[in-house]
Write a structure and sequence with these properties.
The longest helix has 56 residues, at 27-82. This protein has 108 residues and is mostly helical. The protein has helices at 2-23, 27-82, 94-101. The protein contains three helices and no strands.
């Protein structure tokens, strides 16, 4: 039975070679084979480009982390600088002192 399977596989291989040989003789089949080869080349190019996207995604993720860290650091520093301390003591201006002294005495 093992010999029979080998014979069957040998016959299929021979027939496959014959079919491939006949296909190359047909004009439409040649165009189909050329299209298949072109498609294979395009798929290979697409795969190369997609592999490059992985590296870009990693770079973008790293840059997003840096931006998050920088934005967290700048917001905490900005709130400290934005709220200066104010004193509640009342200041007197020199012009208010001068006006009190320059009032003439009342004459009776």
């Amino acid at each position: 039975m093992a010999e029979r399977k080998q014979d069957l596989l040998g016959m299929l291989a021979d027939r496959g070679e014959d079919v491939v040989g006949r296909i190359t003789e047909l004009p439409r089949a040649q165009k189909l084979l050329e299209s298949a080869n072109t498609l294979r080349d395009r798929v290979d190019e697409l795969q190369r480009k997609l592999r490059g996207l992985d590296a870009l995604e990693r770079r973008v993720a790293a840059l997003e982390k840096k931006v998050d860290q920088l934005s967290k650091g700048s917001t905490s520093g900005a709130t400290k600088r934005a709220a200066p301390k104010r004193t509640t003591t009342k200041r007197t201006t020199p012009s208010s002192k001068n006006t009190a002294k320059k009032t003439p005495p009342k004459s009776s």
